[in-house]
Amino acid sequence: MHESINTTRGKFFLTNLSQLRNDIRQYAGPDTVINVMSIDLEEWFQVTNFENVISRSGWNQCLSRTQEVMPRLLDLFSEHRVRATFFTLGWIAERYPELIRRISKEGHEIASHGYDHRLVTTMTRDEFRQQLIQSKDILEQILGEAIYGYRAPTYSFRKETHWVIEELLDTGFLFDSSIFPHGKRDNPELCDSKFPCYLSGKGKQLAEYPLSIFNFYGMEIPIAGGGYFRLLPYMFVKQMIERLNQKDKLAIMYFHPWEFDPEQPKVASAPMLSKFRHYVNLKQNEDKLKCLVRDFRFASFKDIFWDENKRKYNISTQI
Ligand SMILES: [Zn+2]
Asked: Looking at residue 231, which CATH number applies to its domain?
């Protein structure tokens, strides 16, 4: 249990879960659906999209923007009483432990995004386990508390990597959010569920929280965030989330800090399509996020799903 603390904006954050939940519910009102906000905490140069032009060995020479962007994002969340789950790369946490502590103290949940953004499909089972343990250890050492959540880089869980469920459960993870059930892929995803469900391994259950898509006249529109959020008109995304919420379903959204950083260095040598994916509508994106957090209420996976008595993540809301 932590003490309440003051942030730069003078708001109080209470990291005791029941106080957090009361605070969120009071702010949202009794009947408002509370959606999930999640951030994949990584640098602009670590994205899979630029993997072929910026190698991992070159990361240390790239200009870090984390310290520049994150305080702005945290202040925005503070102002709109948003709490989020931050899926954090071990590589980032090693370099900015104070930032990780600040995120946690402000009531957000810290989870793992692996160590160095290696796709699960490019790793052996042993390598995956090593990365899981390494990233979990780094975060737990910094925070002095257990980490329970995982998100695979670029949603790279596939049917052929079904062993990830057992590996996550064996290493102490209780929930995952690595499924983006959108469109038909040659390489099918691990799970087709569009809504929270349990995945089983060795008789245990892993709570799975897929990213939100919306069925719009037979078309599956990914409304969850990232490049889709930047591409789609805000009013359209707003309507889709409203429709989900009207059906008592929550939206699960994701963003990256670099998506709110138009000042980041440009990768001129990347292919056109990669540049389009990374830079499209970057300038307008912070304003869009401001609209989103003004129009909807958001909390972390822990705030919404953690069952204190059973010590597990449920798939129905607890808030
Ligand atoms: Zn990522």
From this structure: 3.20.20.370
Is 130 contained in some domain? yes
pLDDT in tens, 47-82: 999 999 999 999 999 999 999 999 999 999 999 999
Helix axes 97-105 and 66-79, enclosed angle (nearest 10): 0
Q: Is residue 12 part of a domain?
A: yes
- Could you give the 3-state DSSP secondary structure of residue 226? helix
Residue 273 in any domain: the answer is yes
Contacts 24+ apart (CB under 8 A), 135-138: 135/88, 135/89, 135/90, 135/93, 136/112, 136/171, 136/172, 136/173, 138/90, 138/93, 138/94
Helices (H), the chain: 17-28, 66-79, 90-95, 97-105, 125-143, 164-170, 226-231, 234-246, 272-279, 285-295, 301-305
- Give the predicted TM-score (pTM) of the model: 0.94
Domains contained in the chain, number: 1
CA 287 – ligand 1 centroid, Å: 22
Give residue 288's domain range. Answer: 5-313
| Ligand 1 center–CA 264 separation, angstroms | 17
Q: How far is the CA of 66 from the centre of ligand 1 (A)?
A: 14
For residue 318, being part of any structural domain is answered with no
